[in-house]
């Protein structure tokens, strides 16, 4: 139900847009028609990654990137149809092969991609952050001992001491005629003997607890620097994957935030490294997942719409995005999607 409500809000936001911009020229419209196939219909590749691109049921899409594209395309009088892809890699491959004309998604402008494709003017300033399971805040002494595994060890030791006390008492009552016949006194005496006898065990257990506590603290993730030597989740074909490879992290690929959350829940990865607005949005929209975004923004980048080299769509689309930015409409759109999520 929660996911449906979020997508409904995105659909409502998309339907409510009415940002005034100057009408496109006949030349811009003709360029768009010539660039597309099937009677001038542009093939627009979309990669679902809320809140930039989200499904609204059926074949509909909403989100900030979708809404921005539709404003510009309407102004330029371009006809188009959406074609969903499963990853950033598929989007780039589709553009390079010519099966797609435009890529509409939160795709970062990187040096490697700019060498393969053309980007529009940037329309969103982003960067990367880390998402990890929430730390056990406010759990108190018992909660901390439980998370560290200490309560289980105490239970095992306590049970072993009770069993040892009972066995010693039974043996003394059978073999020692001078041993008290009173059960309460006999159990108390042997319990004292057992406690003294396991003093060494208690010392060893205490040392173990200390090591376990240090290990639990050392596994808490507060920043990307805490991820060295650990597997991290990254979106397939994303800038985060390239960052992980370049910095010596161990990347584990996923397709979509739902799969990323499952990797974290199973312990297959220690954290997710990805675009900050996506991680912040997911943690806010799905609090039941028990995830939080930690650390500062790093590896800053920008998003742009993308197309193959030499596309006639690049110039008119870039101009429209610049006008939206200069007129304040782009910032209003960003605020409508992210101010309510803390992104």
- Strand content of the residues, in percent? 15-25%
CA radius of gyration is 30 Å
CATH homologous superfamily annotation of the largest domain: Periplasmic binding protein-like II
- What is the CATH top level name of the largest domain? Alpha Beta
Can you describe this structure?
This protein has 14 helices and twelve strands. With 343 residues, it is α/β, with parallel strands linked by helices. It folds into three domains: 2-123 and 304-338, D-Maltodextrin-Binding Protein, domain 2 (3-Layer(aba) Sandwich); 140-218, no CATH class; 220-299, D-Maltodextrin-Binding Protein, domain 2 (3-Layer(aba) Sandwich). The strands form four sheets. Strands 9-8-10-7-11 form a five-stranded mixed sheet, with helices on both faces. A hairpin with a 5-residue loop joins strand 2 and strand 3. Helix 3 packs across helix 13. Mean pLDDT is 78; it is low at 1-24, 33-38, 137-141 and 207-219.
């Amino acid at each position: 139900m929660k996911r449906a409500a979020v997508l409904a809000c995105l659909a409502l936001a998309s339907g409510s847009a009415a940002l005034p911009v100057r009408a496109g020229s006949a030349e811009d419209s003709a360029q768009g028609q010539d660039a597309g196939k099937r009677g001038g219909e542009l093939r627009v590749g979309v990669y679902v990654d809320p809140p930039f691109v989200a499904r609204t049921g059926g074949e509909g899409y909403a989100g900030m990137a979708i809404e921005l594209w539709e404003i510009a395309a309407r102004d330029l009088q371009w006809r188009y149809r959406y074609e969903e892809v499963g990853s950033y890699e598929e989007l780039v491959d589709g553009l390079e092969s010519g099966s797609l004309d435009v890529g509409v998604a939160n795709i970062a402008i990187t040096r490697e991609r700019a060498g393969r494709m053309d980007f529009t003017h940037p329309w969103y300033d982003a960067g990367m952050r880390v998402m990890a399971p929430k730390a056990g805040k406010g759990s108190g002494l018992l909660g901390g001992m439980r998370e560290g595994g200490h309560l289980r060890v105490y239970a095992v030791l306590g049970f072993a001491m009770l069993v040892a006390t009972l066995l010693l008492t039974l043996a003394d009552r059978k073999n020692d005629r001078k041993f008290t016949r009173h059960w309460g006194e006999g159990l108390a005496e042997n319990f004292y003997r057992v406690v003294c006898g396991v003093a060494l065990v208690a010392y060893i257990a205490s040392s173990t607890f200390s090591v376990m506590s240090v290990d639990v603290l050392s596994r808490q993730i507060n920043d990307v620097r805490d991820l060295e030597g650990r597997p991290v989740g990254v979106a397939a074909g994303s800038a985060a994957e390239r960052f992980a490879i370049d910095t010596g992290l161990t990347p584990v690929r996923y397709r979509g935030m739902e799969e990323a959350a499952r990797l974290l829940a199973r312990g297959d990865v220690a954290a997710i490294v990805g675009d900050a607005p996506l991680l912040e949005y997911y943690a806010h929209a799905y609090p039941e997942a028990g995830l939080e975004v930690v650390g500062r923004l790093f590896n800053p980048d920008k998003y742009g719409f993308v197309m193959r080299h030499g596309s006639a769509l690049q110039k008119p689309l870039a101009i429209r995005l610049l006008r939206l930015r200069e007129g304040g409409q782009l910032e209003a759109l960003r605020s409508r999607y992210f101010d309510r999520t803390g992104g």
